[in-house]
Amino acid sequence: MLFTIIIPVYNRAQLVRNTLDTVLAQTHRPLQLVLVDNCSTDDTMQVLQQFAMQHDASDFQIVVAQERHHTAGAARNTGFELAKGEWIVFFDSDDEMAPRLVEAYAREVARLDGAVDLLSARSMLVFPDGSRREAPFFTSDLMAVNILHSQLATQRYAVRRDFFANTQGWNADLPGWNDWELGMRMLIGKARVNFVNDEPMVIVNHNGKDSITGTEFHTRAGQWEQVIDLVEQQVRQSALSPTEQVRYCRLLDYRRLTLAAHYEREGCKHLSLPLAGQAFENLRNSYSNSIKWRWWVSPVTRWLYRRIVHSKRGSARIAQRLF
User: Fold this and answer.
1) Which of 83, 102, 171, 259 could form a disulfide with 4 if both were Cys (CB 3.0 to 4.6 A apart)?
2) Exposed/middle/buried for 244, CB within 10 Å: 0-12, 13-18, 19+?
3) Strands (E), 41-122
4) β pairing state of 202-205 and 3-9
């Protein structure tokens, strides 16, 4: 079973080799690795070409390409056009995969006799101070979980090629959270999802300024809101039931509140106040300003908001049950 691993790379000459070594160490073969340079201005392209010359083999095919449209989504779409695998693993250029990650995906595909479109894997987050924490991982209520926890982030799943081909691919114009938007779109499209519930096999680096993820929100204010608005539109236009649509839109408003809380924590109340106000107004209207809203949901939601401002963990789990 051929898996294709697709990695967009931008100015990662000093970092990408570590990621590539973890791909090379995969126990599963055959593999295809597609590396897409996305307008790098350093020596990234030379590093990728050298790696290909050293390690390309009949059971480890390496393709190096370029994408001039400067977004990771565009680079990943270019990578998909070059992919030959039955299954696709998208990955980031500063993260790591355990040696048996692809083997675990292949095992689950075989166990399920191919009756699956997407496999979600556990992951470990690494922070600037060196601390580690396992990312939230759930095997039920995945639409709500992805809204709140982004479980289908770029490097945390494998997707069946034929299913992905019908999703219209990555949105190349989104400035951020494009993996979250794609994950939501795949779930709205009724992906058959299963789980690789082994130990965490993906290491996601949040190591400060060199991290793709970044460390703050206010410097890109407006971009995150654009993505939430788009996903809300997709939910409202979907074939989901009216009850599901109401619930997921409430959870999207909670995501707006979470973003507003990050703005406030970063000292940007001029950004947090209007966004939080919009989210609370949307929630109030969705409950028709009922007694339940006034006496229960609203006070708890405001309490959760303050928890996020003060970096308290566990608020999303409570919100998942509240809404």
Assistant:
1) 83
2) middle
3) 60-66, 87-90, 96-97, 118-121
4) unpaired
Return the domain boundaries, the chain: 3-210, 218-322
144 with 112: CB under 8 angstroms?
Answer: no
In the numeric block, which tokens belong to residue 51?
């790696």
Query: What is the band of 210 on the pLDDT scale with cuts at 50, 70, 90?
Result: very low
The per-residue b/e assignment along 22-60, b for 16 or more CB within 10 angstroms, e otherwise, is: bbeebebeebbbbbbbbbbeeebbebbeebbeeeeeeee
Residues 3-210, CATH architecture: Alpha-Beta Complex (3.90)
For 264-302, b where at least 16 C-beta lie within 10 A, e where not — what string? bbbebeebbeebbeebbebbbebbeeeeebeeebbeebe
- Strand pairing category for 202-205 and 123-126: parallel
**Amino acid in the structure at residue 164:** F
Q: What is the pLDDT of residues 144-166, one digit of tens each?
A: 999 999 999 999 999 999 999 99
Residues 145, 321: Cα–Cα separation, whole Å: 11
Per-residue tokens: 5: 């691993």
Query: 176 Cβ partners below 8 Å, 6+ apart?
Result: 220, 223, 224, 227
Cα radius of gyration rounded to whole Å, the chain: 20
- Looking at residue 129, its pLDDT comes to 87
Half-sphere exposure at residue 36, Cβ-oriented, CA atoms within 13 angstroms? 27
pLDDT single digits (tens) 233-244 = 999 999 999 999
Handedness of CA 80, 84, 90, 93 (dihedral sign): negative
